[in-house]
Write a structure and sequence with these properties.
414 residues; mainly alpha; 1% strand
Length: 414
């Protein structure tokens, strides 16, 4: 973000806190999160039999409480959700921090470390040992504050001026990196923590004793990796980098669904099974691919097509996971199979044949997808197993209509 401000030439607080800045951040971060909030809540309610209390008590509580709902932790919680409030707060804090770095960069960088350390000390004396879930709920409010990770933001601001690892500007990184590396090794493999009277001094896995290690690796990558994206692999890496926020949102919902179905989002636990590694890798690839698709949908200029693509995405995405859940029980609703076939056909048309489709035709087939999705929900939650055929009648009727509409439009186009 520091580089963005630098390119814009913004130097005053009025320029930094401009409407164009907020508009860009709202479209980039807030709108996708609100869409995720609505979609994931609906999917969560479906998975918990449309019982909000059951979803709250099982998926959200007791690790989270009512107060955390006001800090943007979603009721259908998913791993990684904690980063959303941090990111949203950064929209308000980062411009001020950048302004401070343009005035007194050294003092500003030191201040970010001091503020974070002071907050860690405050948490230590206010909470001490956590003895109840209520205390953990209040602690999480602190730990989802941007101030809890301010040194990471400060390092990013510092490197936006000069990211050459061998320059005098960044000589201190050669001191911080080995310290952080040693800390991470003893923390990860030997369970070491700074403690006072048995109580941890530092809360969480991400803090000032860790960030310099990650920053050092980033500086190495900036120095030795190519700056241009000419090759196919480089372009793919660049696209993944641009899509990281949407990949995160996709993972939050995806792993949230896995948590709801299996009771945990951890894919690997004793006894070791090599097939679990394959499952984990497959999930990563699926979520990265879906996140990139979502990113591209957000950059669709035609608003009507963007809305239609949203509907397609947030029906097909959870249905892919539902298929992996239910097929293990040797039972799959027919509407779900229809949705998967629809998804395969849409993928072939878009990524292989690459033939543009008229918006009206996309709209009509999106209607078929919605009817199929509603039929799946009704079959699972309302209808008896022997009554599934009733739902096939409206699906079949609409399919015939959509097919006739498509053929007639093709004929008119020719």
């Amino acid at each position: 973000m520091g580089l963005s401000f630098k390119r814009q030439g913004a130097t005053t607080l009025k320029q930094l806190y401009s409407w164009s800045y907020f508009k860009k951040k709202i479209l980039r971060y807030v709108v996708p999160f609100l869409i995720l909030y609505a979609a994931s809540t609906f999917i969560g309610l479906f998975m918990y039999g449309f019982d909000f209390i059951a979803m709250y008590d099982t998926q959200y509580s007791p690790e989270h409480g009512i107060i955390n709902l006001f800090t943007l932790i979603m009721p259908f919680w998913g791993p990684g959700n904690w980063f959303i409030p941090v990111l949203m707060q950064s929209i308000l804090v980062v411009p001020l921090l950048y302004w401070c770095f343009t005035k007194k960069p050294v003092i500003a960088l030191i201040s970010t470390f001091v503020i974070e350390i002071v907050l860690q000390i405050t948490v230590f004396f206010v909470f001490g040992d956590i003895t109840s879930y209520e205390e953990s709920h209040y602690l999480s409010v602190f730990m989802t504050s941007i101030l809890f990770y301010l040194s990471a933001v400060g390092l990013g601001m510092w490197f936006s001026k000069d990211h050459d690892l061998q320059s005098n500007h960044n000589f201190f990184m050669w001191l911080l990196y080995p310290i952080c590396l040693v800390y991470l090794v003893v923390y990860q493999f030997f369970g070491f923590q700074f403690r006072l009277n048995g109580t941890p001094l530092l809360r969480g896995d991400y803090h000032f004793m860790v960030f310099a290690y990650s920053a050092f690796l980033v500086l190495l990558a900036l120095k030795y990796l190519p700056n241009t994206s000419n090759g196919r692999i480089s372009r793919t890496i660049s696209l993944i980098g641009k899509s990281t926020y949407h990949i995160l949102l996709t993972q939050i919902m995806g792993y949230g669904m896995i948590t709801a179905y299996w009771g945990t989002h951890y894919g690997i636990f004793p006894p070791f099974d090599p097939f679990k590694l394959i499952d984990l890798a497959a999930l990563w690839l699926i979520f990265i691919w879906l996140g990139i698709i979502w990113y591209k949908i957000d950059h669709q200029k035609d608003l009507t097509r963007r809305i239609l693509y949203y509907l397609n995405f947030f029906i097909l995405f959870p249905c892919i996971l539902f298929l992996t859940f239910w097929i293990q029980g040797f039972w799959t609703p027919i509407p779900l199979l229809v949705i998967i076939i629809y998804g395969i056909a849409a993928t072939i048309l878009h990524f292989i044949i690459k033939k543009p489709i008229d918006t009206k035709i996309v709209g009509v087939w999106t209607g078929f997808l919605i009817i199929s999705f509603i039929s799946m929900i009704l079959q699972v939650t309302v209808f008896l197993p022997s009554e599934f055929w009733i739902l096939l009648i409206p699906m079949g009727a609409y399919f015939v209509f959509a097919l006739c509409f498509t053929l007639s439009n093709k004929t008119e186009g020719n």
